[in-house]
Amino acid sequence: MMAKARRSPGRSPSAISEAVERALATARDDAYRAARAVAYGEARAEVGASFKEQLRAEVGASFEAQLQALRAEVDAARAQAASVVQRAEAEREAETAALAKQL
Q1: Cβ neighbours of 64 (radius 10 Å)
Q2: What is the model's pLDDT at position 75?
Q3: What is the largest CA-CA distance in the chain?
Q4: Domain ranges of the chain
Q5: Whole-prediction pTM value?
Q6: 8: left (phi > 0), else alpha (psi -120 to 50), else beta?
Q7: Of 30, 45, 88, 101, which residue has the fewest beta carbons closer than 10 angstroms?
């Protein structure tokens, strides 16, 4: 009698077994999907981080090379400007000496 009281009316043991199997299959599928989503998210984050690191390295190297080239151009321009200033000072001194001789 106890066994009859515990069972739902109108549900056979095979129907209950099938419902349990469906619930387990659904739970298993949900767990698989969740695990796959987590793995996909982790892989995506790892690939994203790797890509960011690689991009930073490439951009950083490119930027560093451009910066060094610009520094070299600035140094060359400074040297040229210093040469022009020295030449102008030498010309001015020569003109001043020539004017001093004329007086």
Answers
A1: 10
A2: 92
A3: 141
A4: 16-102
A5: 0.43
A6: beta
A7: 101
Burial class from Cβ neighbours inside 10 Å (0-12, 13-18, 19+) for residue 81 reads exposed
Q: In this predicted model, what pLDDT tens digit does every residue of 69-90 receive, in sequence order?
A: 999 999 999 999 999 999 999 9
* Residue 76 tokens, joined: 């060359």
Task: Compute and round to an integer the Cα radius of gyration of the chain.
Answer: 43
Tokens 């996909």 appear where?
40
Q: What distance in Å separates the CA atoms of residue 4 and residue 98, rounded to the nearest whole number? A: 131
**What's the full length of the chain, in residues?**
103
pLDDT value at position 59?
A: 83
The two tokens of residue 54 are 């690689």
DSSP state of 8: P
**Closest C-alpha among 20, 41, 22, 18 to residue 30:** 22
* Measured distance CA(19)–CA(13) in Å, rounded: 10
